[in-house]
Amino acid sequence: MRAFIPGRRMLAALCAAALLGGCAIGSAGQDSPGAGAARPVGDVTMVVPFAAGGGSDIAGRAMADGLVSVQPGLRINVDNREGGQGAVGYSYLLGKQGSPNYLLAAETSLLALPLSVQVAFTHRSFTPIMKLGEDFTLLVARPDSPMRSCADAVAHSRTRRVLAGISGAVGPDAVVFAQMERLAGADFDTVPYEGGGETLAALLGGQVELASLNPSEVMGQFRAGQLKALCVFSDQRYTYPELAGVPTSLEQGVPVSFAQFRGVIAPGGLNPAARQYWIELARRFADSPAYRDYVASEYLQPRVAFGEDFAAYLADNERGLAQVVRR
């Protein structure tokens, strides 16, 4: 299996991001608006460490709009800083130490990157604000595939070559395929792509037979009859009507369950008052119609956590990832 082995271009981007992060530490706070302040001064920047249009971008923009909706006068601009499977964006935030004027739309790469490649940060380098929810991926195939379930996919992989598309060499898709190998005895040949859009195109175009994709990325193809879901890698079925009929991998005897979290973090070293300011706004956002609309539109599980609870979640999730992610 080729999961967790970054290609040359990806490694170059990650190394560059690590260098950027290392340089940023030395100048932390010197050019960061409001560094040390008790609340943001002027416009706020929501950093998205991936390209526009993906799940992280949608999460970042929903959070930005939601925070603005519950705090009149607040202005948040979105800044996409993609590269290195998220490392460029995280390294940029690392250089904003102490500033309450920056937030970042975080997800599982925050944990997977430091475990798999050399970068200058871990999740402890930042200030956890809010976990928005959890996004469980689906194992999907084209309608004409002989595989009808996760168990079928495992069985086929043991007897012939099965190409499986994943979004990034260190992301949650790679994790679920690695877990299927470790826990169910599968033997997939994974092909990393830059994002969900490329992975989906490869699956529809026949370059790969399987892919692990989020529900929001493939719902249109399900409705058009272009794809079928073999299972969801979750401990329980989705309750959304469009997904309620998709069995879990556990139901099929494949003991794999893994959630990609969606969350928001701030720079490390925040003034405690600034940290509390953002957590309080995040709580108000979680109680708003804007949050409910976002969760429903993205088919998320609305499992929220704030501040220290989010930090504890990250530490626990990191321990689980360490069992399957390696350098």
Automatic annotation (TrEMBL):
Similarity field: Belongs to the UPF0065 (bug) family.
Record Pfam families: TctC
Record-linked CDD domains: PBP2_Bug_TTT
Organism expressing this protein natively: Saccharopolyspora thermophila
Gene3D superfamilies noted in UniProt: Bordetella uptake gene, domain 1, Periplasmic binding protein-like II
Residues annotated as signal peptide: 1-28
Domain of life: Bacteria
Keyword terms of this UniProt record: Signal
Protein name as catalogued: Tripartite tricarboxylate transporter substrate binding protein
